Amino acid sequence: MPVVCSCTNIFSHYPKQMIHSVNLLMSMYLNELNEPQKQAVTHIDGPMMIIAGAGSGKTKVITTRIAHLMASGVDAFQILALTFTNKAAAEMKERIEKILGGTDARNLYIGTFHSVFARILRAEAPRLGYPSSFTIYDADDAKSVLKTIVKEMNLDDKHYKPNIVLNRISLAKNALVGPDEYLTDAILQQDDAKSQRPEIGNIYKAYAQRCFKNGAMDFDDLLFKMYELLTGFPDALAKYQRKFRYIMIDEYQDTNTAQYEIIKLLGAMHENLCVVGDDAQSIYSFRGATIENILQFQRDYEDVKVVKLEQNYRSTQTILNVANQVIDNNRDQIKKKLFTDNHEGEKIRLIRSMTDNDEGRVVADMIQELKLRNHHFNKDFAILYRTNAQSRSFEESLRRMGIAYRIYGGMSFYQRKEIKDFIAYLRIIVNPADEEALKRIINYPVRGIGKTTIDKLVLLANETERSSWEILCNAAYHGFRGNTLQCIDEFVTMVKMFQSELTKKNAYDLAVIVGKSTGIVKELFNDKTTEGLARYENVQELLNSIKEFIETPMNEEDGEVGDKSLSTYLQQIVLLTDTDNDDQHEADTVKLMTIHAAKGLEFPVVFIGGLEETLFPSNMSINSREDLEEERRLFYVAITRAKTRLFITFANSRYRFGQLQQNEPSRFLEEIDDVYLDKSFAGSTSRNNNGWMQSSAHDRMRRGFGSMSNAPATPKKTYTTPLAKPQTKEHVPSENFEASNTADLKEGQTVEHMKFGFGTITRLEGAAHNPIATIIFQQNGEKKIMLNYAKLRIVENQ
DNA sequence: GATTATATGGTTTTT
DNA sequence: CCATATAATC
What is the pLDDT of residue A244? Predict the structure, then answer.
């Protein structure tokens, strides 16, 4: 090999004969950068802050900089890069690998705050009194613990709702306030007293104790305990300071106090800290993030190099102008001048519709049209919205049009009941103290350990300061008798068997044994309902995912605790989100997601839905300047996702909690100059008015049949038009359609169903309170109709 | 003790 | 509208 140093592989994709010297080599990838980008990449030692505007090539800069560090002789093992999502981490890894062409990138420590800290905490757990196989509680587990604590403390669960309490505790942890400090902090106590919830501090304390007893940490603990580790154990601090010589932080504007302090500690020895962020895109203050961190960064270190990336390579002039104009209404911001060399592009289209369903239909129509006229693919489109609940109307119309789509976020695969139940078994095997897992499975599948027994168990556990599991193991001693005792013993024997297999079998084989021995798989298999089938498939999918985990070659960056153990698997999946499964990411589907989930992504064509008061901005956020400005930043993020075309839509009214609610157009719309807008679809008295009225009348009728259309969605699957080939031929109800009294129905009658059309009743059955009619429809064949829900019109008596 | 009917209340946003 | 918590019934 003719070339100079160990850094050859970086340039392996360049023709060899071009390679003459290191300087020339470096200039090759540096040449692809603009001036400020180059400055950011080539700065090696000392603190640096990169203010990276939307679409300014931030990821490119970070990845190139890491490659450059390695080219300059920095050991990959000494580089730590922290991101907010697994997806961002994965993308970075991939891009660095591409630049390096070799395997060196494997040794980098790249991951989310939570997953990197979880890994470290697992290695250091004993210092903190935790088992190294500690469980990570997700929000559901945490809320469940809180619920039991509130009950045990005899507090009113109407006042102490798990969501509210957890939020409060979460904010405290993110601000590095422990239970004792919480209880003695006058202001916090005052706040809680004011909101009629004076006991939150005590709940917090009990919650922390309970989690510890259960050998569990919640999401926030992964930060909080990491901080405790670094501050409480100087040798641990020194160890990681030495290890991470170079640290990079992505999305710095979204860091909270805990993250900020941890970074500060880790970076204190070498001060090779590089933070990247954009204050205009700070959208996580509800999670404790504070823009202050960006400002404070310059105060904390001397000689901070500051680089601003202001050239946008993503969007058209028009899109950028609109974004700039909107964000300009915010008072709190670092002034930037984003510019682009891109084309002016088309105007932004503003679309008004009557209802949320119309909004969905218009967007689907528009996508169809653009596909035909401009040769777009499905994957060129994204539909973004403020709340997950908004996805439905888009989903329905895309389905009806036969357009393939994929929803990100919402309930993820691992949050489904059947999956959580199965996983609970795996959790209890690894960590028998995990009360939440035990609670889920102690009587699933039903084995005769009912409420009475469980209540007694919990009482005993609290009295004796032991875990429920320990008590179960000595059930006879603790006074359980007869059939109950037998059931308990059988359960204990089974779980102990699993535990003994833990060291002998790999995670997949063990999971298969669990599925068999518990009877879960068989039970789901025997459930032939649609939902049961979906659940069965989901469990199979889970087993597949475990297998995949086992078979994936081990990454060195998994470091000292990296292994294929069950507990590593469990740790990995709680920290995974729906958005992270990027196996489908390249699939040709329209992408639907919240704006939060869309951060960092870009799409050729973007639709932003629901630009209405009370929704966007959310009515939770209109009472303070800070909150409103965050909503505006959110809008800014949404706008800047678009590369060439942007559509903004809003509806006059939408269904909320099953009721039609009227809304004003969002105040944000007034902040956009008309010269950038195409409002031909937004007029209030346009010719389309007629069409709207008709379609919303149609909507109103369809609403009556809500029960028919919600087939359970299978996770991780792309919806390629389940309704494209409709099983039901659409029927337009007659003018005079009026539901008849179902008590008058007789066999042999001809009836009209609003959806299925005309048919003849062949059979009437079912209990009086739940009568069921079998009807042969002319268009749609035989159906069983629940008369309590369906509306039927008697056409003629036989 | 388990299965099923009824009531209630919930929508920001996420690791 | 939907999901989950409680009450009612077998």
Answer: 96
